[in-house]
Amino acid sequence: SDETFILTALHGDGDRKTALITLNRPKQLNALNDGLMDQLGEALLRFDADPAVGCIVITGSEKAFAAGADIGVLAQHDFISAYTSDLITRNWEHIRRVRKPVIGAVAGFALGGGCELAMMCDVVLAADTAKFGQPEIKLGIIPGAGGTQRLPRAIGKAKAMDLVLSGRMMGAEEAERAGLVSRIVPADKLLDEALALGELVCALGNASVIAAKECVNRAYESTLSEGLMTERRLFHALFGTPDQKEGMDAFLAKRKPNFAR
Ligand code: HXC
């Protein structure tokens, strides 16, 4: 169908803009169907490839970031159809391929696939109304887009087990204490704060931003020695960029840096 499930816009005053992606199936609390995930994946890859974009923000509505995979669709599947169609998860790898920072701005429900989508973002800002959970167990299934893997890495085994086994929700305060979100902001300031963070990132040197993200992500995919070596290589490599000269010249001259696009 040609239905649109997301809205996109560019924000900011600088050379590089923050791309805002708003999940937009409000009546279904942004339940994630294939159409929405296809459009989200396409938008992410397009913005990642666009030199005029420095950072991406994903948000939902006031009531829901996303209430999970579309249960109406899930209910129609059996094992063979789920397995052979790579149900729901087939287009979820796109977000992992994005090299620019992705900020998740979460208000209301982030449940099931919605919580998993939030965890795929590099930074999660939570409105005080945010509620996170992996309620799949209550439907007779388990998380299918990384919930059982990213949650323990983010908040530890004890709390991850608590959430995944019970299906209960946790509020913004608990999520911040546990380390799932970087900070809590008032709901009516959520988008402003996310776009302000985006603008800060957009003003930085693109190569150093991409290197920073790459290195932090390596921490989850490698031994400490390998991760430290990746960091050291990229640290040295950045001394070959004009941004390193500009950043340090500007500091020493007590002026603002003007990083190249
Ligand atoms: C389809 C959904 C939905 C979902 C909500 N809706 N969540 N439709 N899939 N995941 C629909 C409702 O059916 C309802 O439609 C409308 O959105 C509003 O929801 P209500 O339930 O009336 O709102 P409320 O009483 O405020 O309760 C909110 C809620 C509840 C607590 C978030 O909707 C809920 O429990 N939703 C399901 C959450 C869930 O189990 N998510 C995990 C899904 S499995 P109508 O037409 O009645 O107005 C999953 C697997 C991921 O995510 C696998 C890999 C991606």
Give an overview of the whole structure.
Could possibly oxidize fatty acids using specific components. The chain is built from twelve helices and ten strands. It has helices at 34-49, 71-74, 79-84, 94-97, 113-120, 147-155, 157-166, 172-178, 190-202, 206-218, 224-237, 242-252; strands at 6-11, 17-23, 53-59, 64-66, 102-106, 109-111, 123-127, 131-133, 169-171, 183-185. The strands form two sheets. It has a six-stranded mixed sheet, sandwiched between helices. It has a four-stranded mixed sheet with strand order 4-6-8-9. α1 (34-49) links the parallel β2 and β3. Bound molecules: hexanoyl-coenzyme A (HXC). The site of hexanoyl-coenzyme A has 20 residues, from α2 and β6.
Q: What is the beta-strand fraction?
A: 15-25%
Helices, by number, come to 12
Shape: globular
Q: If you average the pLDDT, what whole number results?
A: 96
Function: Could possibly oxidize fatty acids using specific components.
GO molecular function: 3-hydroxyacyl-CoA dehydratase activity
Pfam families: ECH_1
EC number: 4.2.1.17
